[in-house]
Amino acid sequence: MLYGADYNPDQWPEDVWDEDVRLMQEAGVNIVSLGIFAWSRIQPAEDVWDFDWLDTVIGKLHAGGIGVNLATATASPPPWVSATYPETLPADESGASYWPGSRQHFAPSSPTYRRLAGELVRRLAERYAHHPAVIMWHVGNEFGCHLPMDFSDAARDAYRVWLRDKYATIDALNGAWGTSFWSQRYGSFDEIFPPRLAPYSHNPSSMLDFRRFTSDMLLECYLMERAILHEAGAAQPITTNFMGPFKPADYRRWAPFMDVIADDCYPDPSNPHRVRDAAFQRDLVRSLKPGVPWLLWEQATDAVNWRPSNPGKRPGALIAETAQSIARGADGIMFFQWRQSRAGSEKFHSAMLPHAGTETRVWNAVTELGARLAALPELPAPGRDARVALVFDWEAWWAVEERDHPTEIDYLALVLEWYGGFHARNIQVDIVGPEEVDAGYDLVVAPALYLLRDEGAAALARFVDGGGILLAGPFTDIVDEHDQFRSGGFVTQLAPVLGVRFEDFGALGGVSTGGAGVGALSPHAAQAARATGAAATVTFGLDGASLCGRLVAERVHAVDATVVASFETGLTAGSPALTRHPHGSGEGWYVATQPVAAGLDAVVATVIEASGVRPVVAGLPAGVEAARRGDLVTLINHGDVRVEIAIEGIDAETGAPVERVALESQGVAFVHAPAAASEPARKTEPFVAERSEASIATAGIPAR
Ligand code: GLA
């Protein structure tokens, strides 16, 4: 189990470094991410390099038995880079430059930025690739954080190249983007710009490609650095830190290039859904590399500095949150950062070693956690324990949140609602792309899978054919990979599986925010209107109960499906709200609204019953979370009161047999409890979905 933090000794005088190592040992730290923002210290001017301090720090850490995850330090170019090479600066939609003075002020597609960053990485790699202290490499930092899109001239030039690589001919691009609409037909790739500030909506197909391009440019930066590390002989694992469901970067496309997935997760103490949301994030990153443990690369020991109000964690929450990561596949627990900064934007951010010193609640919690982790036995690899998959797809996310749709959809919020239906029951879920759905699952839920690629549709159909239960909808299977309607209406790919014909969308309305056109509310007023949320709902009847849906009440016809629930109110009253349809050896279900609260719970309960999937541990008290990792069951009491839970197994920390465990509020138990023999193992070997693996010449990224 790795335990440690970001370590920024360049912010401190040398006489602090020995104390750092001593206290790291006291806390049980065995790894630090070193020098993530140290570029200006390593290369104070273009032709000046200073590695002496880094040699010293790495030497001290090594002598202290602390492993180094060495950063490539490329996330914050020094002032001389921006002053000498302004073309490295990114730009916003209007073309205005982002200026230096913070961090991440680089255009990912700038050849000059890449040349300078590459030179830094090369020197670091040549110097430290064979250093025994260096056990991992940390490339860049949180790629895309702060700057989700760059509209600079560097982006413009690279975008044209990227599009030429993708489409080869301008006619192909015109076809994919549907440029006959509004006189947008391009004569050559040189006429194309990033989607900069325009009078009205950009072409949605072009927006989708620009998002793909943006994710790829960030990935290219990572791949460039990784290639340099390899060239210099670095044999250590190489990774960068993900941010869970982070919209700008399609991590599923990145994952094959990470030797290990590393993730930063900062649950908001004020978010009533923080346990659910963090569980989703951890399940997502685990699912990116099935069977391989991931690393929690950053969490906070206590308060952060970047929310409007930053409360600390409640007593015990640090262990409870950490246990949630371990339960869901993590083999490393790290923090931002080791020693609290005394200057700069993050001086109020908590750290392992608080500015107030070691006689603090936080230091006690940190040392207690270090001791507990050190005592844990080796953990089983996170297997593919889940029998339920929730489809979550970046391209669908990008496309479904474009404007000019029947209704605005917050895709992540909607997916989290579905996830919550399973999380609340302690049913383990993998978070997968549609192409990754395979016969090992019993139940697959695909909400708002608005953009559905051919391969994804084929995998979902194969899954049902083979005996699985698919719950699709609402707003699923509407467009192809270019964000264009397919011929023959909507829900075309899944129609045979679902046995329905989709007629129209039935947006429910609510507070009008006026879109973005003439008469629109200001973004602030629109947000406020959404937050007060007088959005209309619809009711549907299921098993004698009248339940609620939101967003849409789609008009769907049951062709050969059975109607399980019908709308009771609204324009679609009397038409199907929930259908089921036998197909192959399985069943396709369709839900025509976004059920809320009891409605969502009832729909989830219905498909759980139909599929026979079971919780990790049944009948747990409210607030107790359970997750399985091979034969290890982790129980976490997020509630306020002490609970007792019947579970037979071996306490993983003490080795003692248990029949019951008692958990105080925030208490955690790790119990070896193999799945009951009555729970069959995965039915088949994982199916490997077919995907185009042709390469983009520049970076070896699989083509779309
Ligand atoms: C991110 C960054 C860190 C730091 C923390 C603060 O995770 O990677 O450098 O800024 O946020 O929470």
Keywords:
TIM Barrel, 2 domains, 704 residues, binds alpha-D-galactopyranose, alpha/beta, 9-stranded parallel β-sheet, 10-stranded mixed β-sheet, single chain
Structural features, described:
The structure is a single chain. With 704 residues, this protein is α/β, with parallel strands linked by helices. The chain folds into 2 domains: 2-148 and 218-375, TIM Barrel; 388-611, Rossmann fold. The protein is built from 18 helices and 26 strands. The strands form 4 sheets. The protein has a 10-stranded mixed sheet with strand order 11-10-12-13-20-19-18-15-16-21. Strand 12 (443-446), helix 15 and strand 13 form a beta-alpha-beta unit. It is globular and about 75 Å long. It starts with a strand and ends in a 32-residue tail after the last strand. Residues 512-521 and 683-700 have low confidence and may be disordered. Bound molecules: alpha-D-galactopyranose.
CATH superfamily name of the largest domain?
Glycosidases
Q: What's the tally of helices?
A: 18
Q: Major sheet, described briefly?
A: 10 strands, mixed
Describe the strand arrangement of the main beta sheet, using strand numbers: 11-10-12-13-20-19-18-15-16-21
In total, how many beta strands?
A: 26
